[in-house]
Write a structure and sequence with these properties.
Elements: E1 22-23, E2 35-36, H1 43-58, H2 63-69, E3 82-85, E4 88-92, E5 98-102, E6 109-111, E7 117-119, H3 124-144, H4 155-162, E8 169-176, E9 184-190, E10 193-198, E11 201-207, E12 213-219, E13 222-227, H5 234-243, E14 249-254
Antiparallel strand pairs: 1-2, 3-4, 4-5, 6-7, 8-13, 8-14, 9-10, 11-12, 12-13
């Protein structure tokens, strides 16, 4: 990366410490190697995103369910656990199989096209999801190296992801890709049998005709898109829906 270190990507301060390792995609989503060098995200912003934003987003659907279904280990290398309510938990039992224990009258459960249990969630969690996506996207721009995320073009995205001023809003696109078998990257065999490598996450960054910069992010078969330049993602969603048989919907969130 050619951008000089020593200025935080989010608060834009220089008089701060840069001692914490910054994962572009959260470790809890399976990322252990896509890490920014020190000097781009200050310790305060690092801690804020980890505890206030990513924690809320990853403990809500679809992330909490899919993390358990994929049995993505925690930072302490333990199997994941999702608590859907005070007395309702899910545990991993092999790929895409989960154990549901307990009962609750406050959680509505439905089965989606992937045959996974998805609980009804509060729409306030959508605000944390889009703020996490913006954080991932801005940091990914540093990795890609073609677009400078420090320019004023990204100030609104930077502001919403880190501070989310009351009254502000941001959109993201969301859909589910129905063919989970397409997530198989490779199959090989050894003395113990079949070994299958599955895609866990994937991202792409593209530029629209309007000049807006779009992050496309996939976690398992859940697909997201958000604009790293302005709050609206309608142009991308319309183009996506023209080109694909599955349809993406637009989710509008308010700052919380």
């Amino acid at each position: 990366m050619e951008i000089p270190r020593g200025r935080c990507l989010f608060c834009l301060r220089r008089d701060v410490s840069f001692l914490r390792k910054e994962h572009v995609i959260p470790e809890s989503l399976g990322n252990d190697d896509l890490v920014l060098p020190l000097g781009y995200v200050c310790d305060s912003c690092n801690q804020y995103f980890g505890s206030k934003i990513e924690g809320e987003a990853l403990n809500s659907p679809p992330f909490n369910i899919e993390r358990v279904a994929a049995n993505i280990k925690t930072k302490k290398k333990k199997s994941p656990l999702a608590q859907l309510d005070s007395n309702l938990f899910i545990y991993p039992l092999g790929l895409d199989h989960i154990i549901l224990t307990g009962e609750s009258s406050n959680v509505l459960i439905k089965t989606d096209s992937t045959s996974l249990l998805i609980p009804k969630h509060s729409h306030k969690q959508d605000s944390f999801i889009v703020r996490m996506l913006l954080k991932i996207g801005l940091e990914a721009l540093l990795i890609e190296g073609n677009i400078d995320p420090y320019t004023s073009d990204h100030d609104r995205a930077r502001r919403f992801s880190r501070f989310a001023d009351p009254g502000s809003f941001w959109e993201f696109g969301y859909t589910v890709y129905p063919k989970k078998k397409d997530l198989t990257l490779s199959v090989r065999y050894d003395d113990y049998g079949e070994l299958i490598t599955h895609q866990i996450y994937h991202y792409e960054i593209g530029k629209m005709t309007s000049g807006d910069i779009i992050l496309f992010f996939a976690f398992r078969n859940h697909l997201f898109a958000c604009n790293l330049t302005s709050p609206s993602v309608e142009e991308y969603v319309e183009g996506f829906n023209v080109l694909n048989s599955i349809k993406m919907s637009t989710v509008k969130t308010k700052a919380i």
